[in-house]
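Next comes one such specimen:
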Amino acid sequence: MKKVIFSATAIAFMLLTSCSTSKQITVPLSRSVELDDTYTIIWNGISKAYRYENGQWLRAESYDYQFDVVQKRYDNHWKSVKSLHRIHPDYDGKAGDRDQTMYFEVAYKNLIEGKVQATINSSLGNGTGASDTEFRKSVLTMYVPNASKFMPYSKFRITQNYNYEEGVLTETVELIKEKDGKEIPFMKNEETALIFIKSKLDKAPTTFKH
């Protein structure tokens, strides 16, 4: 299977403590590096942000971002590095730096009732997940470590849809507060990304124009 074809004070506190930047990232440890040691997919996409207020989702354009994911699939153990960049001129910095990097390890293990079960180690927090056997539809849940009662969310839920044949990945990243056994939505990001894999080019893809 080796070649098998994310109040102002509260927001600031929220992402300073849990939305990882390059200084906070969990770094994968290895004594060696190889150029082609596994099946690698690169995703390039955009995300539209929404805030939940008064029972409805409202657009939060200044929190939109562009992103790239380098996803390395080692059999049933995947490692991904996600880099995002917010370009909106009105971004206020309350969700952390404009440029952020996050790391995810997903270990797919047991098959239960047709779903592959997973454990997750990430710079956002640890958690669990489930997917179909072709990894087309996945749900990953991560819990914010040491989340205080003042934070507007305590977990992330990422719902993924891999459309390999069309070369498109769509994701919904939800930020949720769990309180008294209930889920309270806070924010979400609707992501769409295109797939890029190793290939050979017939000629230079771009040329200088004058």
User: Anything to note?
Assistant: The two ends are 48 Å apart (CA to CA).
